[in-house]
Amino acid sequence: MTAFEIEQLAFAADSVADASSRIPRFVNWPVVYLIEDGKDIYVGETGNAERRMRQHLKSDTKKHLREVRVVLDDRFNASACLDLESYLIRLLDGDGRFKLLNLNEGVTNQEYYQRSEYNETFKEIFDELRDIGYFQRSIPQIENSDLFKLSPYKALNTEQGIAVLDIMEGLVEDLRSDTRTLSAIQGDPGTGKTIVGIYLMKLLRDLAEFDPTDDIDGDSMFSDLFVEGNRELFQDLRIGLVVPQKSLRKSITKVFRKAPALRGAQVLTPYDVADADEDFDVIVVDEAHRLTQRGSQSHGTLTKRYGEITRRLFGEDDYSINQLDWIRKRARHTILLLDTAQSVRPIDIEPEVFQRVLAETREQKRLYPLDTQMRVKGGKEYLEFARALISDDPPARVPDLGDYVFEIFDDLGDMHERIRERDAEYGLARLVAGYAWKWRSKNKSGEHDIELDGLALDWNVSDVDWIASKTSLEEVGSIHTVQGYDLNYAGVIIGGDLRIDPDSGKLVADRDNYFDAKGKSNNSMRGRATSEEDLLRYITNIYRVLLTRGMRGTYIYVVDPELRQRIRSVLRTA
Fold first, then answer.
1. 412 exposed, middle or buried (CB, 10 Å; 0-12, 13-18, 19+)?
2. Could you tell me how far CA 162 lies from the centroid of its own chain?
3. What positions does the domain GIY-YIG occupy (predicted)?
4. CA separation (Å) from 203 to 85, 122, 262, 508?
5. Region 379-571: CATH code
6. Which of 168, 246, 346, 406 is most buried, taking the most CB atoms under 10 A from its CB?
7. Paired residues of 32 in beta bridges
8. Is 502 helix (H, G, I), strand (E, B) or coil?
9. What's the rounded Cα separation, in Å, for the pair 406 and 555?
10. C-alpha–C-alpha distance, residues 339 and 479, integer Å
11. H or E element: which one contains 281?
12. DSSP 523
């Protein structure tokens, strides 16, 4: 029998008074509540529901709400209620049934006594709220959606929270002066860089629009930012989130449209920033390692536009000027989210530029490293293992990866079938590969792209939101489609572009079997040739990124027999 109850009442003064008289825990007990009108919803926690409801009734941003549900449980304490509040906010945002009115004042992911037991109760509370009509989808369906994965309501871990707080406190000071600043958040795949960027955007908007009549929790991480003077400081800021990759940019734009506070926030390309009518106050750049330098861009029109922008901003088409220079020219405060080991093309800004950026931000005490692995259940041990596996210093053994699954296949059809099984069980299981096959199907030629072991597969038909597309389970995603996204299980095909040289015994890039033309071309504008060493770095970076997409597990199929044998010999130590 469930120990919790969910009380319903009208969002009105007389209903609050009535509840106070008949429900003892309504006045002096930790509870979680939801206030809604069928479209908008606010979720909160409090130790005194009567007092909190009376405060909300005075709020201009909530006076249109109509109904309250209060979750009551004799076992609740403040930590459990904070956790349940955060849990419901994340799931409501990911479900999309309601538009959330909550601020990002600072819910972090903290452990507390008997948390696992409370989590079981939270699932039961979710089920009852879903039966009432608060949710449209199940928890696994919600958690597999972009709305959930890219939600601005994620609970931050401690190091993420500290980075956000330090950046925001610095902005409060910097916005009152003419200072121009550069900050950088650096982390491996899966450390939550994109989540921090989205969270920052939401927090910037919340500070501009928060209701002064709201009672901000004084113990929350960002509560000291929500004061009247800061509200005026942030109100008229021009802010934007730059996302160089088309697919990820489109996904984040959809998420922003669902969040009332973010509807006015701009998700931009570097070209949008450069061509804007006015300068920006704050620009956050996600996947900053995918910003480009001067050279032949993805389309000829962009190459021409690149020179025009540089001339307009700097007076001449200086080939040393890159998109980061554009952004710093147009923004008073620039915040970069980057991992230089994820650069995958010669046109990406070269690593030495970012080394100078990291040195500059470190000197200014504006560099924030993220180390905690948030994506892969194998943790940092798996990341280090995967990185070493695609190197000339392979690991001597397989580390303890807990429940994380890592398996090599000799038949691609068998791996594809395993991916189908995992997708049926968990969702979001996909095949991905290095760019080791021509994209013949692109021109509707009837030819397939990847043909191995009697199996014929095609590259991703869609280059936007491919992972969620109807045909994605029977296709193969490229690096340009999946970088920045999470999967539950990834089936990684390591193609003939990466092999072991039989003479030297070392990894080499096979230029003839690498079919990303922009990934191996020389930068003639800057007089830079893409050497074999450069190409090997790009290709190994690609596979290291692909090997870190799967949250629950990774399967691999290796074309080169020597490399397959090397990896198999490592796996025998497990």
1. buried
2. 18
3. 28-103
4. 18, 26, 10, 45
5. 3.40.50
6. 346
7. 45, 71
8. coil
9. 6
10. 15
11. strand 280-285
12. B
pLDDT, tens only, 475-531: 999 999 999 899 999 999 999 999 999 999 999 999 999 999 999 998 988 889 999
Q: What is the fold of 158-370?
A: Rossmann fold (3.40.50)
pLDDT higher than threshold 50 for residue 368: yes
Structure tokens at 313: 């901003």
CA 492-446-556 angle, 5° bins:
10
Rounded distance, CA 35 to CA 459, Å?
46
Q: Tell me the two tokens of residue 275.
A: 């061509």
Burial of 48 (0-12, 13-18, 19+ CB in 10 A): middle
Alpha carbon distance 285, 330 (integer Å): 13
Say if CB 471 and CB 461 are below 8 A apart: yes
How far is Cα of residue 99 from the mean position of the Cα atoms in its chain? Answer: 20
d(Cα 335, Cα 241) in Å, to the nearest integer? 9
What are the residue ranges spanned by the domains of the chain? 4-143, 158-370, 379-571
What is the 3-state composition of the chain as percent helix, strand, coil, each rounded to the nearest 5?
45, 20, 35
* Mean pLDDT (the chain, rounded): 93
Q: State whether residue 477 is helix, strand or coil.
A: strand
The pLDDT value recorded for residue 260 is: 82
Residues 479 and 505: beta-carbon distance below 8 Å: no
- Report the largest interatomic distance among the alpha carbons of the chain, rounded to a whole angstrom: 85
Q: What is the pLDDT of residue 213?
A: 67
| Signed CA dihedral, 416, 418, 424, 429: sign only | negative
Q: Which two tokens stand for residue 391?
A: 């190197």
Taking the C-alpha atoms of residue 80 and residue 336, their distance in angstroms, rounded to an integer, is: 34
Condensed to tens digits (0 to 9), the pLDDT of residues 106-159 reads: 556 678 888 889 999 999 999 999 999 999 999 999 999 999 999 999 888 889
Q: Which residues contact 92 (CB under 8 A, 6 or more apart)?
A: 41, 43, 98, 100, 134, 135
**Fold identical between 158-370 and 379-571?**
yes
Whether the CA torsion 69, 70, 71, 73 is positive or negative: it is: negative
In sequence order, the 6+-apart residues with CB closer than 8 A to the CB of 15 are 9, 68
Q: Which residue has the tokens 């194998």?
A: 378
The candidate with the shortest Cα–Cα distance to 336, out of 377, 275, 287, is 287
The token duo for 139 is 């928890």
* pLDDT, mean of residues 455-471: 92
- When pLDDT is averaged across residues 374-381 and rounded to a whole number, the result is 92
Instruction: Extract the tokens encoding 431.
Output: 């095949």
Query: In the numeric block, which tokens belong to residue 165?
Result: 């707080």
